[in-house]
Structure to design on (602 residues):
């Protein structure tokens, strides 16, 4: 067994490398050196010549060309990078790489276009000032492939936003401090703004509790961390979370009121003070409904406090076991508010909500990260859901909500969750985190 | 996917497969999927219409299809011929029809379209707007995946 491993060891390593091709570039030469451009930026390659001169342009602009009806600027990379210009027959056709930036299509003149080179992203080395004749801030990196060294140009930075800056030879800046950190500085700044303690805790919470620190819950986590530290110090323990149980203990107070039970009548009354609806129908979306307590509580809220509306609640959860029990949820008789008694019936399994109330709630087995086919809704209830999604999924869901929710509609988050977004108006009260979608962004400015 | 729809499909698949294959069939764990999915080689599609819209897809490898068709026809078949195709279509029809009957008893009205059979290599199915429930069934003749995507008309 072990001998075969040794024999094939090298071979498998090589194939692994081959398999991992995740970056392709068009390679070309310029004054005898090999360069590459990310293939996703390249629209096409072609031969063209006889460009139309445009007066009063920088020297490296060769003119404009007609690309099947689109007029695109043609830039000579040799001139732009101050490489010695070749004398060419003016009538001959030249090699052009047409690149596509955000809003801009342009052609660059190169010496020869070689081929498409596939490499693994990991093998790209960061640029070093001594590579190439081009200022390193225009270089993505350097990569070796089949014995040749390719300099990968960062076309976004060369041609992007501001007008292209003609750059001189590398000697212009062998200034490590000024140029190199350009790429590294952005992500560092994002996480760097958090205190180190919070970062550690955030990482362990994500690993042990599937809880993701974001602006939605940052205030709570910061506050809880303070409490947690003094609590742990009193016990003579380190505040770091090292066990799943500790993460759960840390998160225990995060749960909103009435989690896993029917809401108390008093809480429902408080919430009904905040909400106001127009029209005759209310559509409610309640993803992450768990075993359905929250969805039925919403039905009770609408049934008792908004009785002149017809309503429908779309509830979903991605836990099959929980959601399967939801349509026939059995209630604990003692924990139900007296006010709700008239909406319950005795069945052979125990106390349940009446068929009439159940008819308003539709339970679905659904993952909120997948497409959410949803009619326009007036109320979205996502208590303690966002915090348990990845930060990017949180943002996606919030933007999806602002699309699906009617103007003036409400979003209810967990008691310890906050939404910081100018498209929403904070109408929270009595401990309920409620946000109202503004009519439109321009209105938002008017209101504020 | 509405909770009430899940069980009828799982039960129907289990009942029909156990009956026609006359052997033990095991149900794998149900899960949800919304991305593009590879198809194993033979796929039978039955469309659903009525109060809902959607489709049920029965996915299996070619060898599984041949083995199942052999058992169902009580003769040894070796390749994907017309008989195998007709048999697999019929199996899809039986399972979906039984599920729809169960759903009808619960008060949901669905209509079926005739099954369509697709065979080939390296196929993928992408329904980007729909989330599908995957019911994996394991039999001694191979695995069958039942991929149900149904949504309410809104």
């Amino acid at each position: 067994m072990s001998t075969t491993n040794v024999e094939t060891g090298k071979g498998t390593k090589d194939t692994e490398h081959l398999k991992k091709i995740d970056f392709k570039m068009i390679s070309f030469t310029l004054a005898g050196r090999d360069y590459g451009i990310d293939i996703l930026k390249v629209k096409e390659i072609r031969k063209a010549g006889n460009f139309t001169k445009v007066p009063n342009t920088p020297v490296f602009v060769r003119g404009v060309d007609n690309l099947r009806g689109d007029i695109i600027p043609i830039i000579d990379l040799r001139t732009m990078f101050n490489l010695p210009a070749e004398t060419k027959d003016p009538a001959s056709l030249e090699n052009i790489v047409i690149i596509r930036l955000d809003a801009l299509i342009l052609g660059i003149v190169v010496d020869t276009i070689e081929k498409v080179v596939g490499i693994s992203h990991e093998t790209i080395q960061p640029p070093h000032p001594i590579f190439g004749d081009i200022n390193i801030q225009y270089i993505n990196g350097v990569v070796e492939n089949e014995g040749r060294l390719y300099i990968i140009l960062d076309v976004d930075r060369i041609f992007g936003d501001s007008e292209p800056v003609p750059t001189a030879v590398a000697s212009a800046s062998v200034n490590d401090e000024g140029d190199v950190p350009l790429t590294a500085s952005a992500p560092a700044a994002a996480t760097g703004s958090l205190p180190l303690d919070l970062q550690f805790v955030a990482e362990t919470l994500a690993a042990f509790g599937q809880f993701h620190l974001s602006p939605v819950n940052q205030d709570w986590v910061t506050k809880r961390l303070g409490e947690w530290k003094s609590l742990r110090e009193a016990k003579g323990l380190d505040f770091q979370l090292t066990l799943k149980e500790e993460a759960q203990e840390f998160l225990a107070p995060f749960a909103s009121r009435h989690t896993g039970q029917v809401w108390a009548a008093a809480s429902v009354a408080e919430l009904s003070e905040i909400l106001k609806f127009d029209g005759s129908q209310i559509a409610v979306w309640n993803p992450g409904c768990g075993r359905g307590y929250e969805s039925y509580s919403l039905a009770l809220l609408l049934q008792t406090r908004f009785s002149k509306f017809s309503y429908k609640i779309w509830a979903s959860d991605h836990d099959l076991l929980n959601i399967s029990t939801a349509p026939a949820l059995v209630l604990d008789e003692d924990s139900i508010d007296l006010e709700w008694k008239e909406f319950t019936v005795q069945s052979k399994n125990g106390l349940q909500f009446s068929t009439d109330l159940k008819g308003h709630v539709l339970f679905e087995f659904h993952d909120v990260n997948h497409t959410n086919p949803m009619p326009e809704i007036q109320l979205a209830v996502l208590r303690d859901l966002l915090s348990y999604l990845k930060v990017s999924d949180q943002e996606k869901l919030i933007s999806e909500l602002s699309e699906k929710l009617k103007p003036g509609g409400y979003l209810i988050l967990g008691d310890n969750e906050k939404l910081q977004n100018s498209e929403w108006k904070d109408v929270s009260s009595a401990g309920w985190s409620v946000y109202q979608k503004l009519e439109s962004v321009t209105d938002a400015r008017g209101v504020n | 996917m509405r909770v009430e729809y899940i069980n009828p499909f799982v039960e129907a698949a289990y009942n029909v497969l156990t009956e026609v294959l006359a052997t033990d069939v095991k149900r794998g764990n149900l899960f949800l999927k919304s991305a593009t999915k590879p198809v194993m080689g033979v796929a039978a599609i039955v469309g659903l219409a009525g109060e809902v819209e959607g489709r049920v897809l029965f996915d299996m490898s070619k060898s599984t299809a041949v083995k199942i068709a052999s058992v169902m026809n009580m003769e040894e078949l070796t390749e994907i011929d017309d008989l195998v195709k007709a048999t697999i279509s019929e199996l899809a029809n039986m399972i979906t029809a039984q599920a729809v009957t169960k759903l009808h008893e619960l008060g949901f009205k669905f209509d079926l379209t005739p099954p369509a059979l697709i065979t080939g290599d390296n196929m993928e199915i992408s329904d980007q707007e729909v989330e599908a429930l995957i019911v994996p069934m394991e039999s001694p003749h191979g695995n069958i995946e039942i991929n149900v995507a149904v949504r309410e008309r809104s």
Q: What stands out?
A: The first strand of chain B starts at residue 26 and ends at 27. Helices of chain B lie at 3-21, 62-73, 82-105. Residues 25 and 100 of chain B are 21 Å apart (CA to CA).
